[in-house]
Structures are given as C-alpha cells and as structure tokens.
Amino acid sequence: MTATFRDKLKKVVISGKEVYPIVEGGKGVAVTNGYTAGAFAAAGAVGTFSGVNADTFDANGNAIPYTYSGTTRRERHEELIVQSIRGGVQQAQIAHEISKGNGRVHVNVLWEMGGAERVLTGILDQAPGLVHGITCGAGMPYRLSEIAEHYNIYYHPIISSARAFNALWKRSYHKTPQLLGSVVYEDPWLAGGHNGLSNSEDPKKPEDPYPRVAALRASMNSFGLQNTPIIMAGGAWHLREWEHWLDNPEIGLIAFQFGTRPILSKESPVSDEWKQRLPMLREGDVFLNRFSPTGFYSSAVNNNFIKSLRGQSERQIEYRMEQEGLFAEPLPVGARGRPVFIQPDDKARAESWKNQGYSEAMKTPDASIIFVTPEKAQMIHKDQVDCMGCLSHCRFSNWKDHDDFTTGKKADPRSFCIQKTLQDIAHGSGIDNELMFSGHNAYRFGSDPFYSNGYVPTIGELVERIMTGY
Length: 470
Prior knowledge:
Blueprint: H1 5-8, E1 12-14, E2 17-19, E3 22-24, H2 34-42, E4 46-50, H3 73-99, E5 104-110, H4 116-126, E6 133-137, H5 144-151, E7 154-159, H6 162-171, E8 183-186, E9 193-195, H7 209-222, E10 230-233, E11 254-258, H8 272-277, E12 286-289, E13 297-301, H9 304-314, E14 316-318, E15 329-333, E16 338-342, H10 344-355, E17 360-363, E18 368-372, H11 374-385, H12 418-426, H13 459-467
Parallel strand pairs: 3-11, 4-5, 5-6, 6-7, 7-8, 8-10, 10-11
Antiparallel strand pairs: 1-2, 9-13, 12-13, 14-18, 15-16, 17-18
Helix pairs in contact: 2-3, 3-4, 6-7
C-alpha cells in the first residue's frame, strides 16, 4: 500500500497530549475565539483563542461592546482589564465545551498589551482546568514560565530567532523546562499581525526559515529540549511544501501554525465582507509596515487605512523650534499659530499640501511635522484623549501601564489607536478603512481549488484538508 501524506504527518505531544501537528494561530481582539479554538481542538488539533480584549456574548450570542465610564486613562485601563478577563473566561468555557475533551486549548496573549499579566492570571484564576497552554509573543515574556509554573500549565513562547529564545532560556525558562510545551518560531517576514523583525534584519529581504529554525533546534537540543516541538508559524499553507521538514533531524519535532486560512471558515467570527475579500487579494496586497503604536513591524492588507497612514508619513518635513542654518522659513503651527522653522525647499511642499486640503500641521516626537486634513487632526486628537491603555507602551498616545503611566515622549500622530480599529473591524465595521491584519500568503485563497466557487469550510473540514497536504 502506498503511503499517503497523512501517514507522514505524525502526531506530536503538545501541552501534555498527543495531537495532530496543526495549531490555530491566536489572532487578537476577537478574530480567534472559543468557537474557533473549540473546533480546532475537537478535530484533534490545537485551538487558540485570543485573550487580547476577548468578547463577552449576551444571551442571544451577540458580542457586548467594550464601554468606558472612567474620565482618566488609568480608570479606563482598569475597566479594560475587567472586561478582558470576563471575555477571556467566557471564551475558555466555550472552547472547552466544543472540544469535548479532544485536542488542546490554548490562550494567546501579547506581552506588550496593557495589563498582560493581570489579564492572563485573571483568566486562569477564573477558568481552572479549561486551558492547557499559554501562547505569548510580541515582546520578551521573561515571566511567562513563572506564571505557567504557578498554574501548572504549559507555556509556548513566540520568538523569531534562536538568539531570542536563548535569551529567554538563560534568564528564566531554564528553571521550568518541564512545562515548556513548544517553541513557536514566527517568521518575521511572512506572518500576519505584529512581526518580530530585529534592527539587524532587512524588512525587504525575507530569509529562508529553514536555516533559522534549524539553528533554533540546535540551540534547543543543547539545552536538552530534543522532545520539545517547534511550531512553525507564518507562511504555512500546503503542508506538502514543507515535506522536507518532516522526520528531519535538523528540524526535529515539528508542528505548523495556521493563522490566515482559518479566517475563511464557518466558525470564524469576522464579517462576511472580510471573508469575501480574502479570495480577491493578490500577491503583494499585504504590506509590511511600521505604523503600529507598539513600535513593532506588522503585516496588514494595503487598504485605505494603510494607504492613509502611508500618505501621512509622506507628507512630512523636519522643523526646528528656533532658526538654525537652513531652517529659516517660519511656519505657523497649532491653534495659536506659533511659528516653527523649516527649510526653504520644504516651504513649497507645505504650501502645496495645504492647498490640497491637508492644512493641519501636527508635530511628531522626531522633530518633524505631518500634514493632515482638519477632520483627520480632530479624530487623532480625540483618539489620543480617549486612550484606554490597551498597550504596555503606546507611541500614539504616550500611555504606559505602570510607574508614572507615560512614556515620557510626545504622542505620535503618525500612528493610530489600535484598540479602536481592531474592535471596529472585528465587529462588522467596513474593512477598507480599518486595520486588516493578514499573513502574506492570503493571496493564495484566490488560486486554491479548495475555496473555489465561494466555498467556505468548517474548521473540521479545514483540518482534514490540511492533513492531505493541501
């Protein structure tokens, strides 16, 4: 009998249980929830619900919007944490019920989200036994192993290089090796959402993940972690394309994370408009950018939202508070029209932008000015004032979730309120004018015969399809 691809795809032990080597990517702010995670687990794989500002549903199954009555950022931040914990607990309960004891259920949090530890521990306190693992990235989560040990739960750090894992291991993870459920290698060029590109890596020159993951495995083996799986995240579509990774001693135990493909499924909570757009995307439509208020690179569809941010950055000139060399041309800024000084060549550009309707000049923290419409300036100011502290550090509003609660820098109008736009797009707002995170392989929906004639699979059907290699 001829072996099938499914025969080659061996199960692995993740979070203490043997499962198919297929993991749901934990997309934040309601894009992965208890329904998607439960369905992945029910299929014998690993489901991941997002613990980042998770939804709470009413009796009719409708998401309850996050609301704030506090007049200060700190008050609203506390309200955000309470609502996030409540939502995370409900999603854990839903996932547990749907899974019926199959597979594994993980919760995903971003280390750089506001109050990350408090939200995570709040969910685990109130949902004992319902979650099998913690997946965490977007930063260097040194305390992840300590939290995992307290709750006797597996932890799955997300890293983008062997160097990053080495730092985590040597600082803290070596103390709790028995609960290290896997190491998630997230490709910084292909994954959707926030990406872990370092300052030494070129965003325009993607590197082959194989040698990077092989280096990670070699490092893990040197620490005695031969039996700890690596989860390859970012770029996985047809597993036949990764067949040379299977039963490969340089790679070792391996599983694959799927973040983009599950968005187009019946259980996916995103809007029909979002699902209908995915098969229309073409190669290159996903844009690696650095507009996020986290300061990280991120990958998103190059829609009107991203194009607007690109336009703002392009309508940018340097300034000085006092006359200095070529910075001799006065430019009135702000409601009082106090002058700053710009270069003569930039004077003409500034006047041109103003004539096009971009008449509001807004200062950035980097001694530059961007030009936006009055309506856009008003929206930016309002969003900054309404900040609810969703990040540990926010360059857009200058919020920080500890110490003196400010980054000490000026708010940066070149960024945006990520909580607002992700909540809006997740709950049915038009996708053209909101942040639409996506992996770079999303264009493959349009050519994959599995999705022909508008077919939208269940997650169970998707897992079965993935197991065939396609």
